[in-house]
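Lab manual, section 2.4: Encoding a predicted structure.

Procedure: take the sequence of the chain (187 residues), apply the prediction step described in section 2.3, and record the output as C-alpha cells. A sample record is shown.
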Amino acid sequence: MHAYLITGGGLEERTAWAENFFKSQGITEIVRITRPKKNHLIKTVRELIHALLFSPINPERGRGVIMEDANLLTTEAANSFLKTLEEPIGNTFLLLTAPNRESVLPTIASRTMHIDLGTTQFKIDDEEKEEAEATFVKLTKAGVGERLEFVDRIGKREEALDFCIGQIFAVREALRNKIHGQVQIPL
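Recorded output:
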C-alpha cells in the first residue's frame, strides 16, 4: 500500500506521525502540501502530479507526500487525485491527513489505508476564550433572526467545531461565574 489516510489527534500529531513514518522508511525527499486557508484546489493537485512525474532523488528509497487536511479537497481536486492514489507515480508514498475518515470524500477514503490516531484533546487559548465569551453574551442577548444569521455565517465543519468548542467553554465559564455571583448572564 502506498496511500494512507491518517486521522484523529491534532494536525501536528498527524503530521508528526507522517514524518516519523517516512523517517522509519529512510525517505528523506518529502513533498508537503500544507493546510490551505480555504480548500485544496485542483491546481494544487495538478502541480503535485506534475512534480511527481520527475524521478525521486533516490529512486530506491522513493519519496513521500504529506497532504495536510485532505478533507479540504474540492470535489474536482479529489477526482483529479484518484488515479495517483491508486497508482502512485514512481516509488511514492502518499500520506493524507484529516480530522476523521468521514470528513474525507468516500472516493479518497476508499483508496487509502486508514490509520486512526484516536481522539484529540481540544485546547483553547486566552484570546479564543475571550472571543467565545463575547460571542456567547452577544448571542444570549440577540433575537432569533440575529442568531440564525450568525449560524449562517459559520462555514465549514472545522469552523463549526471550533465555534462549538468555544461556546462550550463560554457556557461553562458563564455558569461558573453565575454560581459565584460574578456575572449576570441570562441563561
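Check your result against the sample. Residues 183-187 have pLDDT under 50 and may be disordered.
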